[in-house]
Amino acid sequence: MVTRSETSTADQVIHLLQLLAADASVAEVAAAEAPAEARDLALRITGAREVHQHREAGLAALLDTARELATESDPGSVLDAIVRRARRLVGTDLAYLTLYDPEAGDTFMRATDGSVSAVFQSVRLALGAGLGGLVASTHKPYWTADYWADERFRHTTDIDGAVGEEGIIAICGTPLIVEKHFVGVLFAANRSSRPFTREEVGLLGNLATLAAVTLVQTRALADAENALAALSDAHETVRHYADGVEKAAAAHDRFASLVLGGGGVDDITHALAELLGGWAVLVDENGTRNSAAGPAPEPDASGHDPVAAVDAMPGLGTGRLVERDGIYAVAVTAARERLGTIYVGGLTLEDSDQRTVERAGVVTALVLLFERQAADARQSARNRLVSDLVSRRGSREERLALARTVGFDPQRPFSLLVLRGDDPSGHRALLISASAATGEASVVGAHDGDVVALVPGLDADGLARAVAARIGKRTCVTVAGVGPVSDVDAIAEAHEEGHRTVGALIALGHRGKGAAATQLGFAGLIVGSDPDVDDYVRKLLGPVLDYDERRGTDLVGTLAAYFAAGGSPRHAAGTLHVHVNTVSQRLERIAALLGESWQHPDHALELQIALRLRALQAPA
């Protein structure tokens, strides 16, 4: 028969079994009424179950963490996920992660979760210093319930200051290691004292291992992606370079075919504009536009050329391209001599395009050298022709034939110009400028240091002035005109007169001007090869001579007596044996005939010379 006591004990044991079946906590099992032996056994079972459940939860959390980390491709996001999971799994106030810096030999704060201190978030941990430094130097986990009271760690001012500002007391740190390579340290910390169980330390260690592997893999993936991007960039660079080489080859072939086909600089300029787009302009060494293609900006009303504004850029003379305000320029040089400048605009040039412009500069220099050699050969022939004509070398028929071979007929009236520049080294440039200023119908050559031009036209003075003004825009040149000349044998005397006239112009202070000997007054009589005294006298005294001839008066005599008396009407009256009023009346008539300026010093000097020459002339 079962007693009441046995029935009560059985009920208590059944109640314990029910609690175990319901996954009751250790506290609930400990509070149940049951025999001590049965309760102890139930407590051991409940504790083992809780440990097992805790481990299962940890493993499940690790699996969830692995899945979360597997979805991250950015190293920064991986680190944030690691500290966020660590804080949740261990159940601490904050979690953080430091990474190893091989160059500095320490670890630095990389990611935090739950931190509030900026100082703590930027702290660096030297190896061996503090709890984290000890983990980093030994590659072993360390934990403490009270960091401040734990004497195992070497406390430093920087680390303790950062830890104190964050308010941390309990810390657990475990290393991140992959294949014996130290990566960093993962921490879980609390702002109040709390012990860390071995299960929590192990869980944090497992998470650190998983995090380290994931971090290394993520870095490897990032490195692979960077390498792939670099490879893609390199491929694009190679492709771009290949395109540039192809474009450069096409430009080279285009320029080569132009040169071999006899093309000139104008063809090169147009080809450059077509190859690049935009516009291209070639300016010669004198600053004059030689050729242009495309919508290039034109000079303004004042003559300012916006294209040539780049000419003063540093480095232009090196043969490399320079740029300013969207205009590119390259100097055209040969044998250290500047032959011109190529300007390009209206576009943005890539490297290959810039090399194309520089190549165009080299090809243009070659073409200009060829043209210069041909021009020099032609000019040399012109020099010999002009020298033969001026020196009367050969027979008259031979000289006529030579002149006509270049399209010039010396038997038709023409003017002879003598040009003299200020710069002796610019003789060749002066020849070129004179040819351009006088036109294709003229013959320009050099003789005895002078530039001589035979120019169709009768107005020697007007031609001399016009040529001096045109060339004078670029360089100072003095021009003497002689003519008209209408015979090949008269060229020598005309040149002699022009040679003396240009010297007289310079001596008289008219450097940079142009004039004929006939326009120099009495000085023209001195420098002229065949002075026309009658013409000079008639030019100055003509109105008075005509009056005397018509009226039978002697105003010329009165004028001569007036000048001989030093400009005194009274003394002149005594010489002429007339009343002073008569002299005054005659002088008024002379003023009406010659103009009010007849008594001005320059005019009066010319009149006195004309009166003297008339007196010296033999009677007709």
From TrEMBL:
What PANTHER family does the record point to? CARBOHYDRATE DIACID REGULATOR, DNA-BINDING TRANSCRIPTIONAL ACTIVATOR ADER
Q: Belongs to which family?
A: Belongs to the CdaR family.
Q: Where are the transmembrane segments?
A: none
Quote the Pfam families the UniProt record gives: GAF, GGDEF_2, HTH_30
The domain of life is Bacteria
Name the lineage: Bacteria, Bacillati, Actinomycetota, Actinomycetes, Micrococcales
Tell me the protein's name.
GAF domain-containing protein
The GAF domain covers 74-225
Q: Which organism is it from?
A: Terrabacter aerolatus
Checking InterPro entries in the record gives:
CdaR-like_regulators, CdaR_GGDEF, GAF, GAF-like_dom_sf, PucR_C-HTH_dom, PucR_C-HTH_sf
